[in-house]
Amino acid sequence: MNQKVILSVLGTLLRFLGMMMIVPLLVAFYYHESPLPFLIGIGLTEITGIYLWSSYKSDDDWKLREAFAIVAFSWLAAMFFGAIPFIVEGISPLNAFFETMSGFTTTGSSILDNIESHSKSILFWRSMIIWVGGMGIIVLFVAILPKLAIAGRQLVRAEAPGPTEDKIKPRIRDTAKILWMVYVVLSALEVAALHLAGMSTYDAVTHMFASMGTGGFSPYGRGIEAFNSPLIEAILILFMFIAGANFALLYRTLYVNHKIIFKDEEFKFYTAVVVVATAVLILALRRDIGADPFTCLRYALFQVVSLLTTTGFANTDFNLWPDSSRIVLLLVMFIGGCAGSTAGGPKAIRILLLLKYARWELFRSVHPKAVKPIKFNGKTVPENTMQEIISFVVIYFLVFIASTFCISIMGVDILTSITASITTLGNIGPGFNLVGPMASFNGMPALAKVIMIANMWIGRLEVFTVIVMFTPEFWKK
Amino acid sequence: MNQKVILSVLGTLLRFLGMMMIVPLLVAFYYHESPLPFLIGIGLTEITGIYLWSSYKSDDDWKLREAFAIVAFSWLAAMFFGAIPFIVEGISPLNAFFETMSGFTTTGSSILDNIESHSKSILFWRSMIIWVGGMGIIVLFVAILPKLAIAGRQLVRAEAPGPTEDKIKPRIRDTAKILWMVYVVLSALEVAALHLAGMSTYDAVTHMFASMGTGGFSPYGRGIEAFNSPLIEAILILFMFIAGANFALLYRTLYVNHKIIFKDEEFKFYTAVVVVATAVLILALRRDIGADPFTCLRYALFQVVSLLTTTGFANTDFNLWPDSSRIVLLLVMFIGGCAGSTAGGPKAIRILLLLKYARWELFRSVHPKAVKPIKFNGKTVPENTMQEIISFVVIYFLVFIASTFCISIMGVDILTSITASITTLGNIGPGFNLVGPMASFNGMPALAKVIMIANMWIGRLEVFTVIVMFTPEFWKK
Ligand SMILES: [K+]
Ligand SMILES: [K+]
């Protein structure tokens, strides 16, 4: 393991993170709030970043293990240093780490009991972390993960000029820049739209951070319900839906071929899930809560898009719905957005390919000798891609089960444990019962908080990245 | 599709089933109860059986599709005709079908509200169905399924002289006879042991039926709790554990090599699950219900063995335990007994191989070019066996999720829906909440009962056997 290159990259990352904190510092000055949390944050982060960067300056290429370690430790380092402003503000370190990891992983599960009691600049930083985390995710997905040969090399389908097999660095700049551009342009459009719909600049920016990053933090305890505006909700639905789509696909649709998005099987599947789940949920809500059709549509579409894209916003307390409506939301939590987006979850493409695999095996059990490959977007899915997807899903579920078991055995009810596990592992945000959308994760046992931090970290980094580091062979020479 | 051979086999099966009903008829005479349910049952079953057998007499070999159809329709036919005595006794047809399918699939989920109100002969037949179903399972597993190339050809490892690839019939007699012998000898031993421990002959026989078939019906509403005898529970634990082990392995251990059982990886895994789950549950129960250590051991070991082997007996109402104890039971429900036993569930060997697969993929993500096959009992697991296991688990979970969704959306709470689905799909018996061990499935919506009947059928026949019949290619020429 080349530790020098790892520490060098972490140094660069911290320098970038420290500079990011200048934004909430300016917000603090604007609202005449204490700049101390950010001054201390910037100081400690920059000092550490510059120290690492100058001591271990390295232009070495990343090999497989270095790439795993860089990805995993990047999010850990971001958690430790990003939490400094919260800790200075008086939040306990464990809760601060939870909230920061929740942000950088674009989870949006909140541990703050009384959100409105915090300063505007702290809440701004809390939301901004999501947006920064979303940028990191784009790099991770588009540039790094495909090279790690995990979870399906071809999943993102970015089709940027690729580097040679063992060198990862050159590609990062090529592809990530294009996708960051898409991300930034969409972000600007969303701020404008939300502002025009009546939100203050502060609210528009923070909610844009949370929806473009599919993060779901809101500076208000009641979340989107606080605005009670169907127009704002419609804008958020649109941008959540876009943020959950493959950014490379969006780019190619805008600049190469407008029709390409309608031919993409993952996008079609993703859209179909939204339509079907919303339709079912409307019917269930009509029966279960007896609201008028427009309200049912409003709740159903917003919550389905919010949970499928793993944003986690709520325009009503869906935790109060009967189980017969909540089951629809529970199921979409196990799907997630598209690969190459900021969304979490197992991702639509993996679920789609797994369904194709099951269908294929049924065919094969009747025609054992037939040769008929599994296809995606007209191309044969390579066998090892399928293997990677299957092992991803297997390990994802093992982590989910282990987490549910551990949280439950601490005395938390099963449904809370199930949803707390999937919502953190899938980087969604809210769950049911004790961790509902209007509740806080602060009531959970301390050890459960640690497990959920691990879930967010594992889930965001596509499970393998973190889990391999716990195998002995990763550390062997 | 050769319909003649299918109808011919079903005819033979019904003739056998009709003769089986002579046993509860004798029980009815012994207890001076109405013989009518069984006389009508025998009459209708034998007439249909003889009609089919004589009209379609066929010695043709079974090809792939015929084998699928024979297996699936055998259990359906057994359900329809086995239910006649219950219907004659006044139970509604849907409930009678549920109870009979529950028996023949060795599930043991009961829909009878007041069990003790039924006649001794009816309750005898109810328990006996399980034992007959267990015999059918042995044939299915040892002789038929391995030839269908589903779910892992080598899973059972019966190693009986095999026939040629396309001919299934000859093997049935060879291997099944040996394993039936094991089954019958163990059954006799269990009756003797239970009788010596103080059970009446009637109770000993019916509970032997239920434990050797891993079925779990009891003629008493409170189940094993009714006896309140640690000795009886210890005997049941032993025989449930044996009934959940691979019968071919038991045979070879007894007659070939006494040490072989301790070298078998599936048996070791199965035993390890019992030990670990029991230990964890003892600790959880100590904290949750505060009982003395012996009571905790008694409850924990009995319930872990009962639910892991998918028997479903209860020596206490575990549904009253807090979730932090129930979670242990919920997890073992997703494992099941060993292949080649009468137990249901995904089976220990599949879970073990899936864990090995996950571990193997983690290794591969660090060493992408390494060649290191997955091994089981020292032999390399062929790639297509692994594929079959994976697709089994994928389809098993899809059915589980679909069933949970459908039952839940009807207005049943999520935990009841989850456990009602896994307990019927895994042929376990009891679940949590509305379908707890001391409750009845009668309170479930009618459509949910149909879904659960389908679950039992699908789960017992290793999912593929039933599911392929719903694909268009199965019916194509
Ligand atoms: K989220
Ligand atoms: K059972």
Ligands in the structure?
potassium ion
Radius of gyration of chain A: 21 Å
Assign a percent range to the helix content of chain A.
Answer: 55-70%
Low-confidence stretches of chain A: 150-154, 156-170
Keywords (chains A, B): Cell inner membrane, Cell membrane, Ion transport, Membrane, Potassium, Potassium transport, Transmembrane, Transmembrane helix, Transport
GO molecular function (chains A, B): potassium:chloride symporter activity
Pfam family, one (chains A, B): TrkH
InterPro entries (chains A, B): Cat_transpt, TrkH
Tell me what the structure shows:
Chains A, B: The chain crosses the membrane at residues 12-32, 38-56, 68-88, 123-145, 178-198, 234-255, 267-285, 327-349, 389-412, 446-470. Chains A, B: One of its GO terms (molecular function) is potassium:chloride symporter activity. Chains A, B: It is a multi-pass membrane protein. Chains A, B: One of its GO terms (cellular component) is plasma membrane. Chains A, B: Keywords: Cell inner membrane, Cell membrane, Ion transport, Membrane, Potassium, Potassium transport, Transmembrane, Transmembrane helix, Transport. The structure is a homodimer of 477-residue chains. Chain A has 477 residues and is mainly alpha-helical. The first copy, chain A, has a domain at 3-236. Helix content of chain A is 65%, strand content 1%. Chain A contains 21 helices and two strands. Chain A has helices spanning 3-20, 22-30, 36-56, 64-82, 84-89, 93-104, 120-148, 169-196, 201-212, 230-243, 247-255, 260-263, 265-288, 293-308, 323-332, 348-366, 383-409, 414-425, 446-460, 464-467, 472-475; strands at 375-376, 379-380. A two-stranded antiparallel ribbon of chain A has the order 1-2. In chain A, a hairpin with a 2-residue loop joins β1 (375-376) and β2 (379-380). In chain A, α2 (22-30) packs antiparallel against α7, α6 runs parallel beside α19 and α13 (265-288) runs antiparallel to α15 (323-332). Chain A is globular, with a radius of gyration of 21 Å. At the A-B interface, α4, α15, α16, α17 and α18 of A face α4, α15, α16, α17 and α18 of B. The complex binds potassium ion (K) (2 copies). One potassium ion (K) binds next to loops of chain B.
